[in-house]
Amino acid sequence: MPVYLWTVPMFHCNGRCLIWGLAAQGGTNICLRKVTPKGIYDNIALHNVTHMGGSPTVLNMIVNSPESDRRPLPHKVEVITGGSPPPPQILFNMEEMGFRVIHLYGLTETYGPGTYMLMET
């Protein structure tokens, strides 16, 4: 079953749509009160997170986090990002760290992602 770690506000289209789809599959939603790299890594380890969302700013926080905040990932974690495109170096570093980044495009005011792009290797 999927386990999704929330690092974005649930008022976005992602929150209005994904939370119900995940529940319909019997998945688990994990919500962070405060988004920090340590909190992200700790929750991935504690709850065996399979998916998470994060703005390019969150991805930048993860990539530039101190080694003391990081933990080994139990498996590749799928990361959905949107808004402005993350810099290529951030995408590359996220992949090197064990994350798989998918960039989505959609409108907050509508259902959700309209298109997506996988990183080309």
Automatic annotation (TrEMBL):
InterPro entries listed in its UniProt record: AMP-dep_synth/lig_dom (IPR000873), ANL_N_sf (IPR042099)
Segments forming domain AMP-dependent synthetase/ligase: 3-116
UniProt KW keywords: ATP-binding, Ligase, Nucleotide-binding
E.C. number(s) listed in UniProt: 6.2.1.-
GO molecular function: ATP binding; ligase activity
EC class name: ligase
Originating species: Rosa chinensis (China rose)
Gene Ontology cellular component terms for the protein in this record: cytosol
Gene3D superfamilies on file: N-terminal domain of ligase-like
Protein name stated in the entry: Putative acid--thiol ligase
Family to which this protein belongs: Belongs to the ATP-dependent AMP-binding enzyme family.
Subcellular location: Cytoplasm, Cytosol
